Amino acid sequence: MRYDFDAPIERIGTDSLKWDVRENELPMWVADMDFAVCPEIKRALEKKLDSDVYGYQIIPPAFGRAISAWWRDRHGWEPDPDKVIFCTGVVPALTTLVKCLTNVGDNVVVLTPVYNIFFHSIENMGRHTFESALSYDGDYRIDWRDLEKKLAHPYTTMMILCNPHNPTGQVWTKEELDRIGELCHKYGVRVVSDEIHCDLTLPGVRYLPYGSTKYGKEAVVCVSASKAFNLAGLQGSAVIVEDERLFERVERALNAHEVAEPNLLAVTGTVAAFTQGAEWLDQLRTYLYENRLLVEKRLQEELPSVRVVQQKATYLMWIDVGAVTDDSVALCKHIRRTTGLWITPGAQYRGNGSTFVRVNIACPRSLVQDGVTRFVQGVSSYIRK
Q1: Model confidence over 212-239: pLDDT tens digits?
Q2: Considering the domain boundaries, does residue 309 fall inside one?
Q3: At residue 133, what are phi and psi to the nearest 5 degrees?
Q4: What's the pTM value of the predicted model, to 2 decimals?
Q5: Is there a domain that residue 5 lies in?
Q6: Does 12 reside within a domain?
């Protein structure tokens, strides 16, 4: 079956966070796609809604089985279905894990620039974000000397890993993941791996689940259908913990914080995505890759002063504007004010993000064309100021 990703979807007036905008504005910021949901998922949800009672739900065995089989078939890792815990989202899971597996005042290591909500999950719980900045010379790499120094600190008890990495789009290799595992094992640091973007690699690129690595059984792995299938509004994710003692601690923590019970549609949508959504996802990845090539070509031709980082995953383009400004916040404000294009300043991801912007290209190609035109206009007028 061929799916139509060019079809425009009207989202203004639908209580959409992304599209709560002023007239003539184009939002390309938050990680929310503008495509019609996978039809197989929609049919499963409609069938669920056809029931006459919307009471409390349970987590059926099909939930763990669907996730285990998907990771086995697509990613070569088959976690025990009984070690898969439902959670209302990856962020609630991260916040709960920080609170329950670390102590107030502890350090939690992250590789920056990184998804800014990590900082909230850490700092709102009274812990310290301990940044290990990725080195950058046109491409991003882990600074192993700095990372070991941060992990060796006596107050460091956790590392939150982003695999694949948001916003840089890096897909960590087996060697990199093994080395992270060895260092964390050496210094007694718990790894929590957020793998929410794992199914959004570029065609031909494979990601390696942290749980499949040498020290994977010591970790907590968080996954979800919410990014690849755009189901964030259903509020569903999974926390995978293969170590028995750690599993008991995590399951108790998630339940104690009331983030382990599903709404009516969360489990249904997740199971449908991971059992019926493969063909839709494969076509989506190709479409997103073509969007990426379009943006790269136009920027190279029309705005050579900026550089697109060569990413291997996500639909969030990470663009180096360092030749234009060292204040991405000011640049993004100017672009929105003058063109209506709403994109994300990289500064909020810390690290070297002050000279980058993040642009969401998960939308019909007509909107991508419009967005890149506005971006070129906005940056050009900023340069002329």
Answers
A1: 999 999 999 999 999 999 999 999 999 9
A2: yes
A3: -70, 135
A4: 0.97
A5: no
A6: no
